[in-house]
Design brief:
Layout lengths: L1 H20 L7 H41 L7 H14 L4 H5 L4 H17 L4 H22 L9 H18 L11 H11 L1
Helix pairs in contact: 1-2, 2-3, 2-5, 3-5, 5-7, 6-7, 6-8, 7-8
């Protein structure tokens, strides 16, 4: 029950954040009062909208977790560990606020891509390994870049590369789901290079 309340709080916080982001930041006490009243009036509807998306996301996440628990094939162990790690970076305590309401549709698509990858994995584990090798080049370059920001708040352009990596996985493992922009490991490497 406590987890449910935490999740509701997470949805409410994300709702407040998204409503504030939709409006201009208040420059006076009067503007602040107007914004507060607007947020109060629209919060209920926004939280319901967010909660419905979160329910879909958690259902897919639960399905992936369940399938991973049933897998004992050593040949697939590396891929399964990678899927589990990706799941943990997408779904965690406070993920709704952390990712933000605007990102929830993308998070759902990333999870759908994980589902597709899990379906294809036993059929062609070799292809999965090749795709993973392609992804790894970009991921390692990003990890090296993160080392520069150890203990600091990540700039938005560095965080954007994390989302590029998620899009890269969609492109490699579930191309049929589509990405909002063209993506490849080369594009990620170039983005990293620009920030070095």
């Amino acid at each position: 029950f406590g987890k449910v309340l935490e999740l509701i709080d997470d949805c409410i916080a994300a709702g407040v954040d998204s409503l504030v982001a939709d409006n201009e930041w208040p420059g006076s006490e009067q503007q602040f009062s107007l914004l507060r009243d607007k947020v109060r009036a629209e919060l209920g509807a926004r939280v319901v909208e967010i909660a419905l998306k979160v329910e879909q996301i958690l259902t897919i996440g639960h399905d992936i977790s369940k399938k991973l628990r049933g897998r004992l094939d050593l040949a697939l162990a590396y891929a399964n560990a990678d899927i589990k790690q990706q799941l943990d970076t997408l779904l965690f305590k406070g993920f709704v606020t952390q990712h933000g309401a605007a990102k929830l549709d993308d998070v759902k698509r990333y999870l759908q891509a994980l589902q597709k990858r899990l379906e294809k994995l036993p059929v062609d584990p070799q292809r999965d390994r090749l795709m993973m090798h392609e992804y790894q080049k970009a991921a390692e370059a990003y990890q090296a870049l993160l080392g520069k920001y150890s203990g600091k708040v990540l700039p938005a352009e560095v965080e954007a590369i994390q989302w590029m990596l998620e899009e890269l996985k969609v492109s490699l493992f579930a191309q049929q789901l589509g990405t909002p922009y063209p993506i490849s490991s080369k594009r990620v490497l170039l983005a990293v290079q620009e920030l070095k």
